[in-house]
Amino acid sequence: MKKNTTLPLFSAYELDSRFYDELFKKNNELREVYKTLYNLFGSYSVSEFDRLNKQAKDSFFNLGITFQVYGEKEVKEQIFPFDLFPRIINNKEWTKLEKGVLQRSKALNLFLWDLYHDQKIIKQGIVPEDLIKSSANFLPEMVGLNPSGGIYNHISGTDLIKHSDGEYYVLEDNIRCPSGVSYVVGNRNAVKHALFGVFNQYNAHTVVDYGARLLETMESVKPKGVDAPVCVIITPGVYNSAYYEHSFLAKQMGVVLVEGRDLFVDNGFVYMRTIHGPEKVDVIYRRVDDLFIDPLVFRKDSLLGVPGLFSVYKKGNVTLVNAPGTGVADDKAVYTYMPEIIKYYLDEEPILNNVHTYHCSRKNELSYVLDNIDKLVIKPVDESGGYGISIGNRLTKEEIEIVKKTIKAEPRKYIAQPIMSLSTHPTYIDEDESFDPRHVDLRTFTLLGKDTDFVLKGGLTRVALKKGNLVVNSSQGGGSKDTWVLKK
Amino acid sequence: MLARVANNLFWMGRYIERSEHLARFLNVNYFSSLDAPDELSQSRQFVLRSVMYMSANEIIDSDITLKEESVLFNVGLNLEEHYSIVSTFINAHENARSSRDLISTELFECINKINHNLKRYPIEKFVKSGLYEFTSMVTQSSSEVRSKIKSTLLHDEVYAVIMLGVNLERAIQVSRIINSKLSDVAASKEINGNETDGNYQWSTLLKCVSTYDMMRRFYKKAPARKNTLEFIILNEECPRSIKSCLSQIYKYICIISKNREVSTDSAAFLIGKMKAEFEYKLITDIDDNLEDFISNLIDQLILIAEKLEDNYFNISDAITSSFIEEEKEEV
What is the pTM of this model? Predict the structure, then answer.
């Protein structure tokens, strides 16, 4: 259905009744909360908007908020695609989201403690032993270890979508190294510069406090006996695609950004090499994967880590944020048990919906999956970044047969979920010179420290720029939007 | 401050300063030669050789004829030549990028923008009509960067390390420019005899270090050998003189080494000693043997750079050692 409008920037806005559109209701009526923004965008001519859009993109480029693309001849710098139309979350919706993601993070933390200690949840048959035993992300080295403050997942990124029923569903919990928070701040700045006028009419929560709260969280889990902890971030280096984020967070917190080669272990402590000699390090926010943090314990070929780091961690002389081995709990197979996990540890009903999941490891569910591939999304259990996902209604008959074969070969590796209808949001499409609905999701950021927690009031709205595409990951050509959480 | 990052910032300072000197040398020599008083100074080949000597530290055999467009391209925009202005600035940018958590957003944005502009500059335009525009853009840009360094950073160790790099590189580049002009003057004398108007080369020298106007104001005389050299080597008030650079270097090494005992083979000691020697130097002391003095000066400055790396930046890392090698080759 084409929208009936004379506004130049919405001339090609086409609603699809199968999805929840965040701008228009089913009856073509504008949603109340977007009225002011819609009128503002509606008042621009295409050329005016093009200019604003270009300015915003240039600002990302000039600030070096970019990633590198390695071509045949030269290295090209590109910005992450960004859309100027902000996503608004009203206060009521947000209050529920905030409670819900915090509940999940806390439950996951208790789950991790249990998994690496008594495994009561398995002994009581709430989750199957097989789930953990066969997980590549369970680190035996972590068994019996007590992380400072009892915290494993200090930083959690929760991916949510709004389904056609208008409800939020959690798609994924990310508790290894969730990234993207620097874009939340970057996007906000770009929107502020371009649309400064409307901020008077929308009372949106700030997002700049994330760095300060992250530092508080890190300091709260300092090792025993340390008074004023020295906190650092460890990065794989300037060639890492998230390097901008690492340097951004270091700057926001005013802490040192180190690489593995800057650190060394001596006599049970970690030090960094400064111009005045060694300086002890107490808390490390590591943006290096589990298996690369210490070549003496994990991958021996790792050049990114620090030899001996894990032994210092074991002694409790340094805190790692997040703790190693958290990956076992953000596995897509564990996800399906989240309602039970929440009930078991917190004795609460889950606040947020989980998407119903079929386990290919279970015989009867496997046969349902094999018979209904065209209605399902098939996901590998242990891949991240949107890789290896098959969306049933996009596959040809031949492709369905191939998917069936792959699943049958290793059923444990796959789960299936009904195809969720991600909501759509107005997104500017250059070729059409108009806004058009595109699918979006939302990543929230939650911090857990010793006796402290925080959910960033805002988040990263990721948008799939290709028409009809449901995969929003940046590695699959997704872009992002500023996200406003309203104060009232 | 991390030793590795200190090293990056030191080199960021050096590369920013270096790009400015390379650009100005190219600009001044090329454009002033267009209406130079004697035939040699006006000759394309003579100017191009001088430019190659300064930028690439290459002495070109006399039987080779240089192609103007390719020399200009190599010195200005050739990404594959490590000595080109654009490569030099890219190095500055890379060093800034790897320490961007320590420097201000304003400073990084400034360096980043310039880096994009230089890389985007069309080659066709540069060799045909953009030489002046491009080189002026580089010299202006590096002042812009220095002003961001000065006005948006905390004047602490981070600042001291950057300024140490800037001033050390400045001293080295000014010494090299003097060196190259001394050899131009010698070549000119060989052909034109003593009658030649040396005035022209001295003026060019002053313009290459952007001190021509101030020198005229200070002496109220036309530039000649003695007053020119006195001005740019020994005048403490001239911000680009060797003496002034040494004072700055001394000031910043004191900030960095404050808590350390100064051993006699350290950079701090060597810097202090050189500064003290310059304190009471007269132009008449060095005028007789200027070539040796300058080449000795360059050696000393390189030694300081090496000692700084040893004393403060040493984390025995591959990237650093390649920088040291490059430095040794160059002079």
Answer: 0.85
